[in-house]
């Protein structure tokens, strides 16, 4: 006759069975190595994601009133630095022969700067200084400012973001290829293409996408798509003398 042994009184058979077992002795170090590898892999992945996001998006603070009232002094924006990026299709075709580079080997991944976009750009004569302006004229277009009105290819540009009344007249220019005409929404208080000249695309850092501070301005950045009408400019003394 046998008497059952209570569980708490049983000898540690399992522990005794593994004592001196090399496979069991290696189990703990193996688990530690696996844990360390997982931590390192997770850290590298997090760093890669951080660098990718950092390369694509960046926060900027509005400094000044050249875009007022659209943007306020001290307002914070998130700028997309990837949206205007270019790819050299001709070089890419060396590795992917089924891609036809065509007549224009360099193309935008998404799209180039568009009229009405609010952009951050590097000051053309002060490296390290950033400006925030709005794209008004595109490469190849003829632009003219007459009595506080912008004309594109001799047609009036309707700009709902600009003040109703602002002054100034600038002679017609043809915007060079690869360059853009930019202006601040606060037309009477903005250093822009009227004084700085057209802006090469390589100086454009990115497009404003989101406003996140102050909270009253939280939301998508106020980019626009202004219309070019059929209205022609009035002849001014300056233009009559051309």
Short overview:
The chain has 242 residues and is α+β, with helices and mostly antiparallel strands.
Describe this structure in words.
The protein is built from 5 helices and 15 strands. With 242 residues, the protein is an alpha+beta fold. Strand 5 and strand 6 form a beta hairpin. It folds into 2 domains: 16-54; 62-240, Umud Fragment, subunit A, CATH 2.10.109. The radius of gyration is 31 Å and the shape is elongated. The longest helix is centred in the first third of the chain and has 35 residues, at 22-56.
Q: Which descriptors would you attach to this protein?
A:
8-stranded antiparallel β-sheet; Umud Fragment, subunit A; single chain; 5 helices; disordered N terminus; alpha+beta; 23% helix; 242 residues; 5-stranded antiparallel β-sheet
Secondary-structure blueprint of this entry?
Layout lengths: L12 H6 L3 H35 E5 L14 E5 L5 E3 H7 L10 E3 L9 E5 L7 E8 L4 E5 L2 E4 L2 E4 L11 E5 L4 E5 L9 H4 L2 E2 L3 E10 L5 E2 L6 E2 L8 H4 L2
Antiparallel strand pairs: 1-2, 2-13, 3-4, 5-6, 5-13, 6-11, 7-8, 7-10, 8-9, 9-15, 11-12, 13-14
């Amino acid at each position: 006759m046998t008497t059952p042994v209570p569980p708490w009184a049983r000898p540690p058979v399992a522990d005794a069975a593994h004592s001196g077992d090399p496979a069991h002795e290696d189990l703990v170090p193996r688990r530690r190595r696996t844990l360390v590898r997982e931590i390192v892999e997770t850290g590298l992945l997090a760093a890669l994601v951080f660098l990718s996001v950092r390369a694509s998006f960046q926060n900027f603070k509005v400094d000044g009133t050249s875009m007022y009232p659209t943007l306020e002094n001290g307002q914070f924006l998130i700028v997309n630095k990837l949206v205007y990026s270019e790819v050299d299709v001709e070089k890419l075709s060396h590795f992917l022969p089924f891609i036809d580079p065509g007549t224009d080997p360099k193309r935008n991944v998404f799209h180039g700067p568009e009229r009405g976009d609010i952009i951050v750009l590097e000051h053309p004569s002060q490296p390290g200084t950033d400006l925030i302006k709005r794209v008004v004229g595109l490469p190849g277009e003829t632009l003219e400012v007459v009595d506080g009105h912008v004309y594109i290819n001799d047609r009036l540009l309707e700009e709902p973001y600009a003040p109703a009344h602002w002054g100034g007249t600038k002679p017609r220019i043809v915007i060079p290829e690869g360059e853009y005409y930019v202006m601040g929404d606060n037309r009477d208080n903005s250093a822009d293409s009227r004084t700085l000249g057209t802006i090469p695309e390589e100086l454009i850092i990115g497009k404003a996408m989101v406003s996140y501070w102050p909270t009253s301005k939280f939301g998508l950045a106020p980019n626009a798509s202004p219309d070019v009408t059929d209205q022609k400019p009035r002849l001014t003394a300056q233009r009559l003398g051309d």
